[in-house]
């Protein structure tokens, strides 16, 4: 049987976070020596730590929260394409790729190789790309980047454009060992009732 490939960032004290955001911390609130039976841990973290999905509420007060999103968005056939060396990704970058009947598109950019350091700049998605994804019927875009917008963006133009065209967002994937092609994706978020985002265990399995 073909094995699942873990494409999520390990969550420990080494995981990078957005500058100024909540750092990751895992501690034991109870330990087996004291309780006589169990260890019980506690985690403190931003919902946008490591590999995660964004809910529209992240950038729109009227947008859906994590609990409102269809889990089917994050499970099923996905196509991985490779677009290295870009400062931005546009609709024209999809020319030449066969994307008919693709609902989940993952773009390997190599724009954030060293994930032990938070990047100062990353490739950004343009509104033209969001429009093309909508035209193609793609409902999920996944990236090996911490955001679809520039690190210092306040307008969040790509987030808004993707939402306008019905495209949801999966960020922070680890795609170093992944070659372009077709995979089964499983990256379901937690059922967070008020969540603007959610960490995920993202898995790919080649067909």
Tell me what the structure shows.
- The protein is 11% helix and 26% strand.
- It is α/β, with parallel strands linked by helices.
- Helix 2 (127-136) packs parallel to helix 3.
- The radius of gyration is 17 Å and the shape is globular.
- The mean pLDDT is 97.
Structural class: alpha/beta
Number of strands: 13
N-C termini distance: 10 Å
- Overall average residue pLDDT: 97
Main beta sheet: 9 strands, mixed
Compute the CA-based radius of gyration. Answer: 17 Å
Short description:
Helices cover 11% and strands 26% of the residues.
Short key terms for the protein model shown above:
207 residues; alpha/beta; nine-stranded mixed beta sheet; 3 helices; EC 3.5.1.9; hydrolase
Layout: helices, strands, pairs:
Elements (H helix, E strand, L loop, with lengths): L4 E2 L18 E6 L1 H4 L4 E5 L7 E3 L20 E8 L5 E2 L14 E5 L15 E2 L1 H10 L3 E4 L13 H8 L3 E4 L9 E6 L10 E3 L3 E4 L1
Parallel strand pairs: 5-7, 6-8, 7-9, 9-10
Antiparallel strand pairs: 1-13, 2-3, 4-10, 4-12, 5-11, 11-13
């Amino acid at each position: 049987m073909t094995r699942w490939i873990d494409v999520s960032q390990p969550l420990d004290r080494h995981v990078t976070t957005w500058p100024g955001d909540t750092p990751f911390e895992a501690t034991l609130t109870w330990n087996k020596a004291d309780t006589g039976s169990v260890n019980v841990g506690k985690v403190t973290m931003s919902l946008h730590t490591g590999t995660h999905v964004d809910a529209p509420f992240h950038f729109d007060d009227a947008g859906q929260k994590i609990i409102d999103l269809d889990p089917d968005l994050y499970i099923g056939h996905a196509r991985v394409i490779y677009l290295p060396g870009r400062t931005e990704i546009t609709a024209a970058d999809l020319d030449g790729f066969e994307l008919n009947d693709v609902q989940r598109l993952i773009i390997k950019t190599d724009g954030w190789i060293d994930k032990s350091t938070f990047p100062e700049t990353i490739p950004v998605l343009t509104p033209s790309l969001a429009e093309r994804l909508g035209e193609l019927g793609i409902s999920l875009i996944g990236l090996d980047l911490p955001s679809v917008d520039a690190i210092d963006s306040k307008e969040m133009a790509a987030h808004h454009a993707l939402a306008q065209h019905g495209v949801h967002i999966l960020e922070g994937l680890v795609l170093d060992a992944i070659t372009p092609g077709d995979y089964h994706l499983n990256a379901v978020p937690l059922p967070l009732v008020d969540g603007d985002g959610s960490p995920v265990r993202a898995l790919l399995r080649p067909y």
